[in-house]
Amino acid sequence: MLRLMPVGDSMTIGSTGDHTWRYRLWQHLCATYGGPFTLVGPRETLYDKAADAPTSYAYADPDFPRGHLAGWGEGWLHMAPLIGEAIRERRPDVLLVSLGLIDLGFYTDAEQTARNARAFVAAAREADPAVRMVVLPVIPNIRAAADELFAHQVARFNDLLAKAVADLDEPASPLLLASIPESYDIHTDTYDGTHPNPSGEHKLAGAFAGAMWGAWGIGHPYAPGRS
Predict the structure, then answer these.
(1) Gyration radius from the chain CA atoms
(2) How far apart are CA 76 and CA 85, in angstroms?
(3) pLDDT of residue 223
Protein backbone atom coordinates (compact mmCIF):
# COMPACT_ATOMS: atom_id res chain seq x y z
CA MET A 1 0.00 0.00 0.00
CA LEU A 2 1.22 3.48 -0.90
CA ARG A 3 1.31 5.66 2.21
CA LEU A 4 1.34 9.43 1.79
CA MET A 5 1.97 11.89 4.64
CA PRO A 6 0.90 15.54 4.16
CA VAL A 7 3.19 17.88 6.12
CA GLY A 8 2.40 21.55 6.39
CA ASP A 9 1.10 24.66 8.09
CA SER A 10 -2.35 26.24 8.22
CA MET A 11 -2.89 25.72 4.50
CA THR A 12 -2.50 21.97 5.01
CA ILE A 13 -4.26 21.39 8.32
CA GLY A 14 -7.20 23.58 7.27
CA SER A 15 -9.88 24.90 9.61
CA THR A 16 -13.39 23.92 10.64
CA GLY A 17 -15.63 23.36 7.63
CA ASP A 18 -12.85 22.95 5.06
CA HIS A 19 -12.42 20.06 2.67
CA THR A 20 -8.61 20.69 2.58
CA TRP A 21 -6.28 19.97 -0.33
CA ARG A 22 -5.55 16.65 1.38
CA TYR A 23 -9.14 15.58 0.67
CA ARG A 24 -8.95 16.81 -2.93
CA LEU A 25 -5.78 14.79 -3.53
CA TRP A 26 -7.34 11.70 -1.96
CA GLN A 27 -10.35 12.03 -4.29
CA HIS A 28 -8.04 12.40 -7.28
CA LEU A 29 -6.00 9.33 -6.40
CA CYS A 30 -9.14 7.28 -5.72
CA ALA A 31 -10.07 7.96 -9.32
CA THR A 32 -6.65 7.56 -10.92
CA TYR A 33 -4.28 5.44 -8.84
CA GLY A 34 -4.41 1.78 -9.71
CA GLY A 35 -3.59 0.35 -6.31
CA PRO A 36 -4.23 0.68 -2.59
CA PHE A 37 -3.11 3.90 -0.92
CA THR A 38 -3.86 5.98 2.15
CA LEU A 39 -2.98 9.23 3.89
CA VAL A 40 -1.11 8.84 7.17
CA GLY A 41 0.14 11.01 9.99
CA PRO A 42 0.05 11.42 13.75
CA ARG A 43 -2.69 14.07 13.61
CA GLU A 44 -6.23 14.08 12.16
CA THR A 45 -7.88 17.31 13.26
CA LEU A 46 -8.64 20.65 11.69
CA TYR A 47 -7.90 23.94 13.41
CA ASP A 48 -10.84 25.41 15.33
CA LYS A 49 -10.55 29.20 15.09
CA ALA A 50 -13.10 29.76 17.86
CA ALA A 51 -11.16 27.57 20.28
CA ASP A 52 -7.78 28.69 18.90
CA ALA A 53 -6.70 25.05 18.91
CA PRO A 54 -6.46 22.07 16.52
CA THR A 55 -9.46 20.28 18.00
CA SER A 56 -12.04 20.13 15.20
CA TYR A 57 -13.13 17.07 13.24
CA ALA A 58 -15.77 19.06 11.32
CA TYR A 59 -14.49 18.48 7.80
CA ALA A 60 -16.82 19.45 4.96
CA ASP A 61 -16.56 15.75 4.07
CA PRO A 62 -14.98 13.69 6.86
CA ASP A 63 -15.11 10.39 4.98
CA PHE A 64 -11.44 10.06 3.97
CA PRO A 65 -8.13 9.09 5.63
CA ARG A 66 -7.41 12.25 7.59
CA GLY A 67 -3.89 11.52 8.86
CA HIS A 68 -1.40 14.36 8.52
CA LEU A 69 1.47 16.18 10.20
CA ALA A 70 0.33 19.79 9.89
CA GLY A 71 -0.23 22.62 12.31
CA TRP A 72 -1.64 26.13 12.30
CA GLY A 73 1.35 28.42 12.84
CA GLU A 74 3.96 25.69 12.34
CA GLY A 75 6.80 25.69 9.83
CA TRP A 76 10.07 23.99 8.91
CA LEU A 77 11.39 25.13 12.30
CA HIS A 78 8.69 23.14 14.09
CA MET A 79 8.44 20.12 11.81
CA ALA A 80 12.14 19.27 11.50
CA PRO A 81 12.28 17.95 15.10
CA LEU A 82 9.01 16.01 14.66
CA ILE A 83 9.40 14.35 11.28
CA GLY A 84 11.67 11.48 12.34
CA GLU A 85 9.30 10.12 14.97
CA ALA A 86 6.31 10.62 12.68
CA ILE A 87 8.00 8.56 9.96
CA ARG A 88 9.01 5.80 12.34
CA GLU A 89 5.48 5.59 13.73
CA ARG A 90 3.43 5.96 10.53
CA ARG A 91 5.84 4.58 7.90
CA PRO A 92 4.98 6.85 4.97
CA ASP A 93 6.43 6.14 1.54
CA VAL A 94 6.04 9.75 0.39
CA LEU A 95 6.03 13.08 2.23
CA LEU A 96 4.00 15.89 0.67
CA VAL A 97 5.43 19.05 2.21
CA SER A 98 4.09 22.61 2.11
CA LEU A 99 6.01 24.81 4.58
CA GLY A 100 7.86 28.11 4.77
CA LEU A 101 5.36 30.95 4.94
CA ILE A 102 5.05 30.79 8.73
CA ASP A 103 8.82 30.56 9.17
CA LEU A 104 9.46 33.65 7.07
CA GLY A 105 6.56 35.54 8.58
CA PHE A 106 7.35 35.00 12.24
CA TYR A 107 10.54 33.08 12.99
CA THR A 108 13.45 32.90 10.54
CA ASP A 109 14.89 34.64 7.50
CA ALA A 110 15.26 32.92 4.14
CA GLU A 111 18.71 31.51 4.84
CA GLN A 112 17.82 30.01 8.22
CA THR A 113 14.54 28.68 6.86
CA ALA A 114 16.46 26.91 4.10
CA ARG A 115 18.82 25.41 6.69
CA ASN A 116 15.81 24.14 8.62
CA ALA A 117 14.44 22.58 5.43
CA ARG A 118 17.74 20.75 4.95
CA ALA A 119 17.59 19.58 8.58
CA PHE A 120 14.08 18.27 7.94
CA VAL A 121 15.28 16.23 4.96
CA ALA A 122 18.19 14.82 6.97
CA ALA A 123 15.92 13.83 9.85
CA ALA A 124 13.42 12.22 7.48
CA ARG A 125 16.14 10.14 5.85
CA GLU A 126 17.62 9.15 9.20
CA ALA A 127 14.21 7.66 10.04
CA ASP A 128 13.78 6.06 6.60
CA PRO A 129 16.64 6.18 4.06
CA ALA A 130 14.20 5.34 1.26
CA VAL A 131 11.50 7.92 1.96
CA ARG A 132 10.42 10.02 -1.02
CA MET A 133 9.55 13.71 -0.69
CA VAL A 134 7.66 16.29 -2.73
CA VAL A 135 8.19 19.88 -1.57
CA LEU A 136 6.05 22.85 -2.59
CA PRO A 137 7.63 26.33 -2.57
CA VAL A 138 5.96 29.16 -0.69
CA ILE A 139 2.94 30.08 -2.80
CA PRO A 140 1.51 33.56 -3.45
CA ASN A 141 0.05 35.20 -0.37
CA ILE A 142 -1.35 38.55 0.66
CA ARG A 143 1.60 39.61 2.80
CA ALA A 144 4.04 39.13 -0.06
CA ALA A 145 1.70 41.11 -2.32
CA ALA A 146 1.67 44.05 0.10
CA ASP A 147 5.17 43.95 1.62
CA GLU A 148 8.10 44.25 -0.78
CA LEU A 149 10.69 43.17 1.77
CA PHE A 150 8.67 40.08 2.67
CA ALA A 151 8.17 39.28 -1.00
CA HIS A 152 11.96 39.40 -1.40
CA GLN A 153 12.37 36.95 1.48
CA VAL A 154 9.83 34.58 -0.10
CA ALA A 155 11.58 34.74 -3.46
CA ARG A 156 14.97 34.25 -1.84
CA PHE A 157 13.77 31.27 0.16
CA ASN A 158 12.17 29.67 -2.88
CA ASP A 159 15.49 29.99 -4.72
CA LEU A 160 17.33 28.42 -1.78
CA LEU A 161 14.74 25.66 -1.53
CA ALA A 162 15.19 24.83 -5.21
CA LYS A 163 18.94 24.65 -4.65
CA ALA A 164 18.49 22.42 -1.62
CA VAL A 165 16.27 20.05 -3.59
CA ALA A 166 18.85 19.89 -6.40
CA ASP A 167 21.68 19.33 -3.92
CA LEU A 168 19.91 16.72 -1.81
CA ASP A 169 18.03 14.68 -4.41
CA GLU A 170 19.34 11.14 -4.59
CA PRO A 171 18.16 7.93 -6.25
CA ALA A 172 17.53 6.05 -3.02
CA SER A 173 15.43 8.87 -1.56
CA PRO A 174 14.10 11.11 -4.33
CA LEU A 175 13.36 14.74 -3.52
CA LEU A 176 11.07 16.65 -5.87
CA LEU A 177 10.22 20.33 -6.11
CA ALA A 178 6.56 20.75 -7.01
CA SER A 179 5.59 23.68 -9.20
CA ILE A 180 3.56 26.60 -7.89
CA PRO A 181 0.32 26.49 -9.91
CA GLU A 182 0.70 29.09 -12.67
CA SER A 183 -2.89 30.26 -12.32
CA TYR A 184 -2.86 30.55 -8.50
CA ASP A 185 -4.46 33.89 -7.58
CA ILE A 186 -4.81 35.10 -4.01
CA HIS A 187 -8.02 36.93 -4.98
CA THR A 188 -9.82 33.90 -6.42
CA ASP A 189 -8.07 30.89 -4.85
CA THR A 190 -8.07 31.95 -1.18
CA TYR A 191 -10.68 33.19 1.26
CA ASP A 192 -8.38 35.68 3.01
CA GLY A 193 -5.37 36.18 0.76
CA THR A 194 -3.51 33.20 2.24
CA HIS A 195 -5.68 30.17 3.03
CA PRO A 196 -7.07 28.21 0.08
CA ASN A 197 -10.75 28.15 -0.76
CA PRO A 198 -12.12 25.17 -2.76
CA SER A 199 -10.49 26.43 -5.96
CA GLY A 200 -7.17 26.83 -4.19
CA GLU A 201 -7.48 23.42 -2.58
CA HIS A 202 -7.79 21.85 -6.01
CA LYS A 203 -4.75 23.75 -7.28
CA LEU A 204 -2.55 22.73 -4.35
CA ALA A 205 -3.67 19.12 -4.70
CA GLY A 206 -2.89 19.40 -8.40
CA ALA A 207 0.64 20.62 -7.68
CA PHE A 208 1.43 17.52 -5.64
CA ALA A 209 -0.43 15.20 -8.00
CA GLY A 210 1.43 16.61 -10.99
CA ALA A 211 4.82 16.12 -9.36
CA MET A 212 4.08 12.51 -8.41
CA TRP A 213 2.67 11.71 -11.83
CA GLY A 214 5.55 13.33 -13.72
CA ALA A 215 8.33 11.74 -11.68
CA TRP A 216 6.91 8.43 -10.52
CA GLY A 217 3.82 7.69 -12.61
CA ILE A 218 1.54 7.84 -9.56
CA GLY A 219 -2.04 8.60 -10.55
CA HIS A 220 -2.60 10.83 -13.59
CA PRO A 221 -2.52 14.54 -14.32
CA TYR A 222 -4.94 16.34 -12.05
CA ALA A 223 -8.45 16.99 -13.32
CA PRO A 224 -10.52 19.00 -10.78
CA GLY A 225 -13.79 18.16 -12.50
CA ARG A 226 -13.17 14.50 -11.71
CA SER A 227 -12.24 15.16 -8.08
Answers:
(1) 16
(2) 15
(3) 84
